[in-house]
């Protein structure tokens, strides 16, 4: 049994997180229930920031809010002095409603709409990460009309793709994101942006992938980018203020995963950039990063009630829980692996290997294959670890299953931060045939 953060087994023999008994949590808030260990999120955030401070490098650690966005989560990111990466008007709206300081918001996305760009400009957000030429033109046009300046980063694709364990170096990276560094697009974009009276090009951004276990890919990307920046410094005289190397730092979902400590990713990246820059006429830029998963992933646990079971003789035993791909689509979508225990009796000895099925009407709705567990049955409570990133944020209403509630626990206190969806919520946007016909006529 591998426990994360403040998790432990209390005197009642139950899994507890943040000093709160998980069984009491489900009695109060029901299941499925997302539980976040707030202290662990704080620890992760402070770890990233401290490493930069110790290295004496001006930096921004921007939380990639796509991993889990909610008003309370954004407030927590603010309390910890993080910046924020948003990729849509919805994520931006959440940040604004959380009163997040807009100058620390970075706006990403490969297809920002005119409305989204106006919204970002209305709120004077910190910077827009420009992704392609059509956005560059559109933003320039909008800023000219509004007579408003904006800071931008140019997102580049350095021709490196991280496939978790290994890296593929491609000539022309086939990606929908960013300006290609190798084929000259990035340089053209920089020249074009530098001509604008309204756009201030802070520097470059790249993001090479997610759930990455080594630093090799980040170092390769830094080398490619600084090589180009050096040559542009000679040809155009451009000195970047910022180099944003994205997110993607891996976490431990199961014992098969072996991520580096966050500090090691940061240290190795910073030292590489310092060494590379030292060989050029460039000044050391600020280093920005954008962790999502590594800030919130292992701080999240999902609690489910065990329901029915099915034995397929000589094949396997299925145990079904009261959620599934509607609250965590990652196993179905990416074959993502998770570990789990029984929260109501975590210390009981393992007796059998079972596979955990969801309740959705789809054979692929399996949460965990081949999980060693004590003999479990109806009424037991399953705690699936490490569901904090891209779990709730990718949840959905397949089969019209209401999305779960989310609770923050810290220092023995539980705080409901997202209410459970109700059946009324589920139909709240539906229009009856009669109403729909009338609306159409208007
Ligand atoms: N910055 C950019 C520009 C990104 O595209 C992403 C993630 C991040 C930062 C944060 O990456 P992280 O530190 O969380 O790995 N739904 C997938 C993950 C998609 C990641 C998309 N971009 C999953 O559930 O694994």
From TrEMBL:
Which organism does this sequence originate in?
A: Peribacillus muralis
Annotated protein name in UniProt? Diaminopimelate decarboxylase
Q: Which cofactor does it need?
A: pyridoxal 5'-phosphate
Q: Which UniProt keywords apply?
A: Amino-acid biosynthesis, Decarboxylase, Lyase, Lysine biosynthesis, Pyridoxal phosphate
Read off the InterPro entries from this record.
Answer: Ala_racemase/Decarboxylase_C, DAP_deCOOHase_LysA, De-COase2_C, De-COase2_CS, De-COase2_N, De-COase2_pyr-phos_BS, Orn/DAP/Arg_de-COase, PLP-binding_barrel
Domain Orn/DAP/Arg decarboxylase 2 N-terminal, first and last residues per copy: 41-296
Q: Which family does it belong to?
A: Belongs to the Orn/Lys/Arg decarboxylase class-II family. LysA subfamily.
Q: Per its record, what are the GO molecular function terms?
A: diaminopimelate decarboxylase activity; pyridoxal phosphate binding
User: Cross-referenced Pfam families, in alphabetical order?
Assistant: Orn_Arg_deC_N, Orn_DAP_Arg_deC
**GO biological process terms on file:** lysine biosynthetic process via diaminopimelate
> What is the role of the protein in this entry?
Specifically catalyzes the decarboxylation of meso-diaminopimelate (meso-DAP) to L-lysine.
Q: Which domain of life is it from?
A: Bacteria
Domain Orn/DAP/Arg decarboxylase 2 C-terminal, first and last residues per copy: 33-388
């Amino acid at each position: 049994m591998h426990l994360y953060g403040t998790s432990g087994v209390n005197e009642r023999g139950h899994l507890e997180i943040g000093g709160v008994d998980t069984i009491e949590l489900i009695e109060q808030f029901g299941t499925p229930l997302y539980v976040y260990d707030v202290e662990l999120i704080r620890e992760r955030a402070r770890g990233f920031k401290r490493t930069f401070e110790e290295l004496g490098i001006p930096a921004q650690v921007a939380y990639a809010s796509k991993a889990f966005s909610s008003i309370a989560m954004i407030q927590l990111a603010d309390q910890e002095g993080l910046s924020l990466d948003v990729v849509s008007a919805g994520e931006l709206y959440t940040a604004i409603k959380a009163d997040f300081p807009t100058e620390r918001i970075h706006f990403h996305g490969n297809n920002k709409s005119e409305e989204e760009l106006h919204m970002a400009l209305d709120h004077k957000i910190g910077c827009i990460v420009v992704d392609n030429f059509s956005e560059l033109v559109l933003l320039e046009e909008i800023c000219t009309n509004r007579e408003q300046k904006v800071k931008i980063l140019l997102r580049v694709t350095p021709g490196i793709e991280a496939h978790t364990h290994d890296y593929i170096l491609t000539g022309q990276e086939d990606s929908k994101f960013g300006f290609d560094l190798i084929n000259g697009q990035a340089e053209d974009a920089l020249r074009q942006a530098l001509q604008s009276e309204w756009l201030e090009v802070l520097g470059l951004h790249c993001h090479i992938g997610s759930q990455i276990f080594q630093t090799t890919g980040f170092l390769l990307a830094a080398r490619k980018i600084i090589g180009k920046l050096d040559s542009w410094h000679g040809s155009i005289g451009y000195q970047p203020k910022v180099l944003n190397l994205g997110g993607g730092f891996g976490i431990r979902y199961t014992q098969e995963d072996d991520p580096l400590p966050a500090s090691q990713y940061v240290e190795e990246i910073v030292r590489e950039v310092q060494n590379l820059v030292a060989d050029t006429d460039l000044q050391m830029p600020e280093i920005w990063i954008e962790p999502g998963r590594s800030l919130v992933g292992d701080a999240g646990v999902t609690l489910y009630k065990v329901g029915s079971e099915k034995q397929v003789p000589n094949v396997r035993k299925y145990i079904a829980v009261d959620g599934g791909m509607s609250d965590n689509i990652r196993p179905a979508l990416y074959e993502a692996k998770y570990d789990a225990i029984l929260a109501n009796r975590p210390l009981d000895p393992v007796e059998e290997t079972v596979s955990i099925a969801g309740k959705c009407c789809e054979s692929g709705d399996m949460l965990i294959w081949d999980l060693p567990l004590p003999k479990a049955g109806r009424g037991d409570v399953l705690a699936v670890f490490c569901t904090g990133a891209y779990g709730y944020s990718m949840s959905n209403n397949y089969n019209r299953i209401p999305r779960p509630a989310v609770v923050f626990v810290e220092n023995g206190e539980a705080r409901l931060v997202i209410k459970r969806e109700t059946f009324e919520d589920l139909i709240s946007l539906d229009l009856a045939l009669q109403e729909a016909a009338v609306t159409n006529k208007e």
